[in-house]
Specification:
Organism: Eptatretus cirrhatus
Number of helices: 10
Pfam family, one: Rhodopsin_N
Family: Belongs to the G-protein coupled receptor 1 family. Opsin subfamily.
Strand content: under 5%
Radius of gyration: 22 Å
Order of helices and strands: EEHHHHEEHHHHHH
Strand order of the largest sheet: 1-2
Oligomer: single chain
CATH class: Mainly Alpha
CATH superfamily: Rhodopsin 7-helix transmembrane proteins
Shape: globular
GO molecular function, one term: photoreceptor activity
Number of domains: 1
Helix content: 55-70%
Keywords: Chromophore, Disulfide bond, G-protein coupled receptor, Glycoprotein, Lipoprotein, Membrane, Metal-binding, Phosphoprotein, Photoreceptor protein, Receptor, Retinal protein, Sensory transduction, Transducer, Transmembrane, Transmembrane helix, Vision, Zinc
Distance between the termini: 57 Å
């Protein structure tokens, strides 16, 4: 084995030289130079100071403006809430650990941080599943003229929490475990060992099957069918031009969110799968650190996509930031008559975006 396994950690370096120490007790500067740990801390600081206000603003603006409280927006607010939890309870501990060169908070907080990191990723994935299914039902109409209302949105939100918790909670109760990974400053599920004490093998198979492969299959199926339906509707002119445009606006936003998720999380999942299927393989600490920390940027991109692609939300946000006034209102008044919020499309057949 080219790594060193302890009772609650796995360091990707052989201890033949005797330099490997517990990542809960000693700086891990033998894995990477101190400046690299400082760079990780700076990166996490950037995600905190940008991700927190953007996600908080998303929640605050929606709460302040009743017209934004639509069914589809409940799912997007759910994402913002999950991101805030991940930032407050996960990113802060990771940043401080990176500043010190090891996970200074001990094994209990490692489980805590690993839980919220996994929770955030799974909440994003299952929220995208709900959005994909909603788009499929609204546009492809397998259930007729189905209206996606508030009750359905709340069911969708509950579903995302159940699925996310069913993925990140088992290690807390003994099915697998959370351990420091990469440069040993952040924690995640144990892909590195087949420790029979924790049944790691069965958990990783469960995680990759139920909480990665299946949701991605659902997403790709829904958007495959959706693409065909949009082309058929456009060819047959079954909907008005404004309705088609509105549906395309919403669909484009959700598709971009899916692409963003894949860009952030697919490298991490691929590296984790490689490590799991090549037990004992020789790999450096940075090999897992870069995709792990890059995946954390997902807490920032979703609200940014939502803000940039939802015109009504942008208008409400500007009104909130400028204490009830919108200095850009005159510039946008010419187009605002023909466009309503993107998020309202899911609740009716004809409201344009």
């Amino acid at each position: 084995m080219n790594g060193t396994e302890g009772s609650n950690f796995y360091v990707p370096m052989s201890n033949k030289t005797g330099v490997v120490r517990s990542p809960f007790l000693y700086p891990q500067f033998y894995l990477a130079e101190p400046w690299k740990y400082s760079a990780l801390a700076a990166y996490m600081f950037f995600l905190i100071v940008t991700g927190f206000p953007v996600n908080f603003l998303t929640l605050f603006v929606t709460i302040q403006h009743k017209k934004l409280r639509t069914a589809l927006n409940y799912i997007l607010l759910n994402l913002a809430t999950a991101n805030l939890l991940m930032i407050v309870f996960g990113f802060t501990t990771t940043m401080y650990s990176s500043m010190n060169g090891y996970f200074v908070f001990g094994t209990t907080m490692c489980y805590f941080e690993g839980f919220f990191a996994t929770f955030g990723g799974e909440m994003a994935l299952w929220s995208l599943v709900v959005l994909a299914v909603e788009r499929y039902i609204v546009i492809c109409k397998p259930m007729g003229n189905f209206r996606f209302g508030t009750s359905h949105a709340l069911i969708g939100v509950s579903f995302t929490w159940i699925m996310a918790l069913s993925c990140c909670a088992p290690p807390i109760f003994g099915w697998s475990r959370y351990i420091p990974e990469g440069m040993q400053c952040s924690c995640g599920p144990d892909y590195y060992t087949l420790n029979p004490k924790y049944n790691n093998f069965s958990f990783v198979i469960y995680m990759f099957t139920v909480h990665f492969s299946i949701p991605l299959t659902i997403i790709f199926f829904c958007y495959g069918r959706l693409l065909c339906a949009v082309k058929e509707a456009a060819a047959a002119q079954q909907e008005s031009a404004t309705t088609q445009k509105a549906e395309k606006e919403v669909t484009r936003m959700v598709v971009i969110m899916v692409v963003g998720f894949l860009i952030c999380w697919l490298p991490y999942a691929s590296v984790a799968a490689y490590i799991f299927t090549h037990q004992g393989a020789d790999f450096g600490a940075i090999f897992m650190t870069i995709p792990s920390f890059f995946a954390k940027s997902s807490a920032l991109y979703n609200p940014v996509i939502y803000i940039f692609m939802n015109k009504q939300f942008r208008q409400c946000m500007v009104t909130t930031l400028f204490c009830g006034k919108n200095p850009f209102e005159d510039e946008e008044s010419g187009t605002s008559q023909t466009k309503t919020e993107v998020s309202s499309v899911s609740t009716t057949q004809v409201s344009p975006a």
